[in-house]
Design brief:
Strand order of the largest sheet: 4-3-2-1-5-6-7
Oligomer: single chain
CATH class: Alpha Beta
CATH superfamily: HAD superfamily/HAD-like
Radius of gyration: 16 Å
Helix content: 40-55%
CATH topology: Rossmann fold
Low-confidence stretches: none
Mean pLDDT: 93
Number of helices: 10
Number of strands: 7
């Protein structure tokens, strides 16, 4: 079994790009773009670049400052422990940023993770991302790659997410769970959790 989680508003309660934008005094405008992207009204890649450019010039110390503001979702650690106890693997794939997901991955004991990479030059954010964009198709590709590495069929994978960016990986997974899901995900998910407590999935998955 492989369980792949979205990160923002799923494994954590926050939208990391909004916490970072807070430091630039641009949270309101970034939040509006985030919400439209999550509803599927905007192309994710375009919206990501539009939001990240607002971070240009911020010192890289905002990454640690932001990390300290993140709230891990209730029940996340318990669910991950239950998956591991059952012999499963846990992954996270995020439209957010590696610089924040990497320390979270250590804290949550994730087996795999993948996210976008903020470009930093001379100790400052450039307002750009480097490398491949982790968008909707890339999330599905990550799930497929990890399953193949583990020798698992897609039927033995589970995808958990809340927004439009998670729909492709939820479609190909053997089971999809919508967690506090946006309307499009509510229609697509096999199971819905509304409690804001990920440990509810322990019983649903028979762990």
């Amino acid at each position: 079994m492989l369980v792949v989680f979205d990160v923002d508003s799923t494994l954590i309660q926050d939208e990391v790009i909004e916490l970072l934008a807070d430091c630039a005094g641009k949270r309101a405008e970034v939040s509006e773009v985030t919400e439209r992207a999550m509803r599927g009204e905007l192309d994710f890649t375009g919206s990501l670049k539009a939001r990240v450019i607002s971070l240009k010039g911020l010192p890289d110390t905002v990454i640690q400052d932001t990390l300290e503001k993140i709230t891990i979702t209730k029940g996340a650690k318990e669910l991950i422990q239950a998956i591991h106890s059952a012999g499963g693997k846990v992954a996270a794939v995020s439209g957010g940023f590696t610089q924040l997901l990497e320390p979270l991955a250590r804290e949550l004991n994730l087996d795999y993770y993948r996210a976008n990479q903020l470009e930093i030059l001379d100790g400052n954010l450039t307002g750009l991302v480097t490398g491949p964009i982790i968008d909707k198709p890339a999330k599905a590709q990550a799930l497929t790659e990890w399953a193949k590495e583990l020798g698992l069929s897609l039927q033995r994978t589970i995808a958990v997410g809340d927004g439009a960016n998670d729909l492709d990986m939820m479609h190909i997974a053997g089971l999809s769970i919508g967690f506090n899901a946006k309307p499009r995900v509510r229609k697509a998910a096999d199971i819905l959790i509304f409690s804001n407590d990920l440990s509810e999935a322990i019983g649903l998955l028979g762990l």
